[in-house]
Amino acid sequence: MATPSLFPSIEIPEVDLWEFMFEGERSFPDNKVVYVDGITSRQYTFQDVRETAVAFGQAIRTKWNWKQGDVMGVFSPNCVDTPAVTFGTIWAGGIVSPANPAYSVKELAFQLRDSGAKALLTQASWLKTALEAAEVAGLPPSRILLMGDEERPGIEHFQHLIASARSSQPAARTVSKPDDLCFLVYSSGTTGLPKGVMLNNRNIVSNTLMTDVGTPEVSADAVLVAVLPLFHIYGLALLVVHCIYRGAKTIVLPAFKPDTFLTAIQTHQITFAYLVPPIILFLGKSPLVNSYDLSSIKMIASAAAPLTTDLIEAVWGRLHIPIKQAWGMSEASPAIATMLAGDWRTTMGSVGKVLPNQSIKIVSEAGDILPATENGEIWVKGPNIFPGYWNNPEATANCMTADGFMKTGDIGHITAEGHVYITDRLKELIKYKGFQVAPAELEGLLVGHDFVGDACVLGIFDPAQATELPRAYVVKSPLAAEKEMEDEVLQKHILEWVDARVAHHKRLRGGIVFVEEIPKSAAGKILRRLLRDRFKAEDDAKTVKAKL
After folding, report:
1. AMP-binding enzyme C-terminal domain spans which residues (predicted)?
2. Quick one: pLDDT band at residue 58, thresholds 50, 70, 90?
């Protein structure tokens, strides 16, 4: 039997995201500043975002005959222009598909090709990778646009593109249905290749209203810092969509840099911050924090990876800033559960309560429905749950049940008071500083090396960085044995080889361990838990020995 959210149900309007964001009633004026570049101080008011978005939508429709369902790739670090071009694409009926700016040419080309992107937005410093990937994907340079503060010869900047559209009579926008897609975000899967997560207008509208219930701290009076990557669903949904919906001011930083981050908090008097555990670790332990006044922050929300109670206590003890946790995933648009501000101390370790309009099932390995208070895989159903994976019906079928529940792959339970606790993860994904790393992708790469006979990649938790690190367990190939290379030399060689072929967050920071064999089932599936338990026992033994 399903367990419904304890929150009262909320009404979800049957409108597209543009109408929801820009054509409804608001509690703040058009001239409210909603985005500020934390480096240059360039800013957008709500009206600026809307007018720039309309002009951009008109321009791409005129220039490229943009049609309903066309995909716009975005390959960029955080940029104050991102909301305007995002909503402009949606105004024209398009689908926005953000890509990790750390991607290699091969990785970006895969997403462009798989999504069928008709154009690509990027910044000047990322143009070289963008051009090379576009060529591989069959996208001409004329379909690449720049945003941000720099320009490059031969590539049009979106501000030049929209100049004529601003002066022309506004045309009617492309009205989308609630079931039409608006975002296509890519999430790594255990098959090794990233999967396109389809999110429609209803999903994002629903999740925005659900987030309102769980996070009332974000209001027109709030000031936030956008240090989370806006290509990730966590940043996209909360800092591009929800913040402007509420009229909050958001200070946009291109990436996390300690001095810049702390200066932004102090200068702009940040009141609320969406963060991830590695940044929270920095706040709890870095001596640099002592040089700044962070007292304006009233609450931090942490998600994308597990957060230990020790870190929560460390930040509270040092800065007197409370931290609440949330839980979600790309396939849920993303929020499933959020801790209410008043619960952060009494339910520490929980990820909060299931947000409105959702139902939860706790399921055993055998597929039996368990009492909600027992540990099992969590299945969830609601208007925020994605319709499926892009051009991948098999992956969709494996994830969804016939009655509309999504299998999250997370193990947990719900207390009688409605607090969700995540205790384990069925899925094999590694989370490095909130970024997903697919073991199978790295394993597939490793076994392509002449010196690697077999490989298994696991996530090893590093308390010093408060994150998992990908570590490879490698069986040497016969050729490697013939070479009689020292282990350290071979490890260094393989690590450098992998580093040159993957995005920054996928590097084998946990190192390489040589083993005699990789344990597998009769069907050939890697028995990761056996390998993980074996080396955890060995690591524990080393720790005990070191203390003696």
Report:
1. 441-525
2. very high
